[in-house]
Amino acid sequence: MRRHGSVLWLAMTVRPIEIATDLPVIRALAGVGKLSERKVMDLARNRPIGDGVVLEAETGAIRAYLHLHEHASHWAAEIAGDPGDQLAALIEAAASRVAPDPLHLWTSDDALTAALESLGYHTDRELHQMRRALPPGRLPDVPSTVTIKAFRIGLDETMWLALNNRAFAGHPENGNWCLGDLMERMDQPWFDAKGFLIAWEGGRMIGSCWTKRHPGTDHGEIYVVGVDPTVRGRGIGTQLTLVGLWDLHEQQGAETALLYVDASNDPAMTLYRELGFSASMTNRSFVIS
After folding, report:
1. Distance from C-alpha of 88 to C-alpha of 96, rounded to nearest angstrom
2. Cβ atoms within 10 Å, residue 253
3. How confident is the model over 188-214, as pLDDT tens digits?
4. What is the CATH classification number for the domain harbouring 107?
5. How many structural domains are present in the chain?
6. Which of residues 95, 120, 145 is at a domain's end?
7. Which of 78, 82, 230, 268 is surrounded by the most beta carbons within 10 Å?
């Protein structure tokens, strides 16, 4: 599925990543916030071997890096660094490596968005980052039959994965998780089981609100909210979100809450606006064909 080799473009070389020599530089490029959590975790685990291309100047300096991550039906890509007028070459090299699979290039950078549009690429998906100040003005009103408890490490993993995959069936990022996906996030420095809130009813796990405190900032994130499809329509997701917001503020000291939501998810967009969130940034996926 991948084709190796280099592409020469106006005194710049686009070539596959070489882990031994490139990784420290690429990690520095990624450290400026250009890559999403998924891609940063790939780099931390030495995963991009064969799954990324770099733009290298004649001096040997790496100017930009395009990271590739395989999904079930397509490849997702993000760019760290500044490819400048070599953007087309970088994209061409990446697309050739994954062909004939589709390539979706994600960015929240306005300049890169404009450059992609000028090359004729179109947006097929938008992901909003939404924010609001804490504390929330609205108190949670959890049904008397529902109990909220912290995630129990070593006990709740299997049940939570089943719940998550039912709640996000067909979702390209949150769905179809395996134990490795969960454990990888639990191994992150920011993970705190006390902020991983689970809703129980009659001994059954019916929902969860996983929060994430961003170290070194006053930000807390509603990381993943999932509700079992059998209890949808009862307001469990709304109440779990409110519980998560209060926990972020009261227990974790966050002053600002953020979350990510697909722009096409009208019910979720409506809910979060009702809870006081507004869009602060948009990440767009461009179809590369």
Report:
1. 12
2. 11
3. 999 999 999 999 999 999 999 999 999
4. 3.40.630.30
5. 2
6. 120
7. 78
As a residue count, the chain comes to 289
Domain that holds residue 78: 7-120
Indicate whether 3 pLDDT > 80. Answer: no
Spatial CA neighbour of 244 closest among 280, 198, 186, 184: 198
Q: Do residues 58 and 108 both lie within one domain?
A: yes
- Token pair 């089943």 in the structure block, residue: 162
Q: Tell me, what's the pLDDT at 5? A: 46
Q: How confident is the model at residue 32 (pLDDT cuts 50, 70, 90)?
A: low
* CA 271/CA 267 separation, integer angstroms: 6
The CA distance from 265 to 164, in Å, is: 17
Using a pLDDT cut of 90, give the percent of the chain over it.
67
Final residue before a domain boundary, out of 71, 97, 120: 120
Burial 233-246 (b: 16+ CB within 10 A, else e): eeebbbbbbbbbbb
For 233, residues 6+ apart whose C-beta sits below 8 A from its C-beta are none
33 and 159 both lie in a single domain = no
Q: How far apart are CA 185 and CA 191, in angstroms?
A: 7
Please state, rounded to an integer, the average pLDDT across all residues of the chain.
89
Rounded CA-CA distance 178/181 in Å is 5
* 213 to 3, 13, 53, 247: CA distances (angstroms): 40, 40, 32, 10
On the question of pLDDT at 72 being above 80, the answer is: no
pTM for the model: 0.85
Same domain, 135 and 276: yes
Q: Give the angle subtended at the CA of 176 by the CAs of 174 and 180, to the nearest 5°.
A: 90
Q: Residue 239 — very low, low, confident or very high, per pLDDT cuts 50/70/90? A: very high
